[in-house]
Amino acid sequence: MTLKNFAKNIYDFSPFFIQNVILSNEGKKLLSQRFDENYQRIVNLWEKTQWYSRVGLEEYQNEKIRDLINHIYENVPYYQKIMRGIKLVPSDIKNIKDLHKLPILTKNDVKENYKELISKNSGKLWEGHSSGTTGSPVDILWDSNTIAVHNAALWRHRQWAGFEFGRPYAT
Hints:
This protein has helices at 3-12, 16-34, 37-49, 54-75, 77-85, 107-112, 144-160; strands at 126-129, 139-142. The protein has 171 residues and is mostly helical. The chain has a two-stranded antiparallel sheet. Helix 3 packs across helix 7 and helix 4 (54-75) packs across helix 5. It starts with a helix and ends in an 11-residue tail after the last helix.
């Protein structure tokens, strides 16, 4: 029996008030995971960058693309292999118009190279999967920054629709 199954059995056979304590504790963990310092950093960044001019936004995007390409070249085994195989170095990709130089990453590529797509310097990762609406689901990993971006986007959209952060609502 795995630890996860053991914990589920404890939960399943506990009285309701113990189940409520367990769920409250899990809820607090999720809240701190979803709305940590990364979340606030993303919200602040988006508040600032939404007012960039078109040229300013393009410059910012190109800077981030160059950072990302350098990161994957140095830290992601799959992209190290792919880029070296086609003799592509980070300096070959200067802006968004150069992205065509990279081969398209397909769902099959992700399934076949799952472990090689994990950055060497990734921190804690949480497992998830796609919905599988186009066939079979794909396993994915989320880091704390990805979780923060997801929640910042979700709450930004909710606030545009009139929701207030922290106020109860039905889904």
